[in-house]
Amino acid sequence: MTKSGGSKHQKRISSPKNWAIRRKAHKFAFRADPGPHGRNNCLPLGILLRDILHIAETARELKIIVNKRLVTIDGNVVTNLKHPVGLMDVIQIDELNKAYRILPNELHVLMPYEMKKMTSITKLCKILNKTTVKGGITQLNLHDGRNILLPKEAGIEQKYNTKDSIELKLPSQEIATHFPFKDGMYAIITAGKNVGKHGSIKEIQWRFGPRASTVTLVSPKDGTEVQTTPEYIFIIGEKSPWLQVKGDDNK
Question: In this structure, what CATH number is given to the domain that contains residue 38?
Fold first, then answer.
């Protein structure tokens, strides 16, 4: 019989660049299962807890921790060490009274930033697509695999557009805040050579062609300007960030 399906293993030496791990320390690493985030845009939960947060030293210790149902992602208990953790996900560890949010980092693209432990969880999501389903209901397709059905209201389908961001209350998935993609909004870059940089949108230039359009961000620290494609922009606030991007006092 011939081999069917992809590999079930992941060697450290060939792991995605956004994993902040020592690639020559051991041979194998956790391989992310299919889930809400793509394999090249996520961190397996085992890598996050063991190699980045250093909650445990071995996989055996990790299994004991997750089997006690101490780890939650976006308010849901997760016991699979291969579960993909991606951008803006909220990880809480009850035993340690710790909470982290996954944000872009200038070196490793995805890194956990400690935040205040929340009684009610809210999460920012980027709208990737907008479709119409049965009954004429508008559905928002978000970056973390969620699908949100909008209520039947006149003109509500025109309020939300692709590349906008919304704040969700979890686990109810109720929309709390809407941040449109336009000039003057505060955004962070999620990919490319300027990943992790953030600031106010100064100008959006729309051009024909794949990734021909550009967005100019102005840093609030020194006023420097950077340009990137709209696909790499994640709106995180209006005049100021909805969250502390350095993780000091994240909401």
Answer: 3.10.290.10
